[in-house]
Amino acid sequence: MSFKRMATIMGGTFGLVAAAPLFVGDIRFIMHILIMCLIWAVVASCWDLIMGFAGIFSFGQVAFFAIGAYSSAIFSVNLGVPAVLAMLLAGLFTALIGVLVGLPCLKLAGPYVALVTFGVHMTLMPLLRGKIGMALGSGGSVGILTIPPIRIFGYSFSSANLVPTFYFALLLAMACTAVILVVIKSHWGTAFLALKDSEDFAMSLGVSAFKYKLMVFALTSFLTGVIGAFYGHYIGMISTRMLELDLFCTLMVMVVVGGIGMFPGTILGAFITVIANELLAPLGTYRAMVMGALVVILVLLLPNGVMGFWLKPAEAEAPAA
Amino acid sequence: MHFMHISEDTILLLYEIVDVIISGLTNGSVYALMAVGLTLIYGVTKAFNFAYGSFFNLGGYCAWILIGIVGLAGGYFSIFLAVVPVLFVVGYLLEKVLVAPLRKYEDWENKVMMMTLGLALFMDNLYVVVFGGRVKSLPPILEGTLEIGQLVFTYLDITIFFLSIGGILLFGWLLNNTRIGMAVKAVAQNPEGARIVGIPKERIFAATFAISTVMVGFGGILLSQKYFISPMSGGAIMVKSWVITAFGGMGSIRGGLYAAFIIGMMEAFVGWGFGMSYGMIALFILLLTTLVVRPQGLMGKS
What we know:
The structure holds two protein chains of two kinds. Chain A is mostly helical.
């Protein structure tokens, strides 16, 4: 897909969303859902960048999100760091963890990478709930309940004034997705494509798989960490509940609905999924089950996600003969 | 007198350690069964099954229904006889309906991972909806204890150990001595070559998936007697099986066996010394160390 077409779809989506407060600005519930859509759009796009474009089966996206949220909350609650600075620090810290996780992954075959990154996810919950997490200030199984909102020049962006917070989230989401778009269309994106097609051949031409893969780990975990930190400051409380499998699968639905490797489809996917998830709320205990079934069905029936409807036949992923 | 006092404490500690070792051996034997099933399915079909742990609980719940609701006569012998075919058919159909259609895509491995993770979420929450969030327990296959001097072994532990090892030996025999076993091996070595000599590749894939489902489900019936069946434990079981497989060396059944016992022991000792919640952390550290130091695992070919 061309840069122009990607940018048009992104601009159109964000433009439409930006106009939303004119109509529903005073309905708190809808504004909250829109903010969540923007947050998840970034996380899902990061996942698409690392999985769909760079071809790394990273299953640690929710873990990075949680690491960002927790580290920013700990920085601002325990150390008194201003929220904006804490978000940035959280992003850098998450990027560091991302690189540490990425290093052993670079030499591994796909499923091992999935295992290691999923292992990070599985390890995080006992770590945060246990003594080590308590010592760091994770609040154990209760979580952190008093995260200060983001304040810029004495103006606070919290759930008390949703419309400004919404625009803050919109700007953040636009900045993050713009970075992803630029990366995909720069020589990084070309390098990923070359590495995915034939790693040996690309490397013989001087494309360093090591460098590019490590950079994509750092970048996606940085962006995910920042947006996770924003989530923490916006909601005001976080717990290990976010590490349960249903959130992970919701994120996966976004990527599948948007289409893997079909950026900016994931942005649309995030909006569709978050809203559908809210509509499914009356299902109560059945919701997670339905979410799981949806993943199975969508992977089988919608190989290119919603972007499949826009693609020219030549661009669509043809089943290998 | 003083000397006697210390040695009494030491003896108590020794008994405790023997208990931990027994627990490690029993768990290790079931882990071996699960790891061999996983090595088989990955080695033959190259499909990464995230729902593997949910099949563990499927075995447990099937047995629970047969004992608690149906009231099947004949004890565990008839339960094994009834549940094993069910697991086989479920595994076979799931492969045919859900995994096989994905093979035509270029990035099918990725799609299979996502699909099976969705399947795991579906199955785990289905268990919650049908059986409730509370854990269920199964009666032990054999009651009573065996006492040798001061050492106490439960018959349950002994039976679990021998049934698991028996299961692995039976599987190994089937793999080497039956037509279907040899076909499975052929497909694992060279899928195209196997297809050329007339082995129905698709059917072997489905059969492999089914056999691994049986192995992990059987493990579920065994280990659920010692612990509980809890609906959401599938993820931890899956990660454990994968770590064992990676540690032992992908595709190596012997490596998987050793790894299962080492990890069973490690888990038992970490749980005894630091508390159960540290088991997962220790497991993860072991996985990272393995992958950095010896990526091919204990016995895998590099």
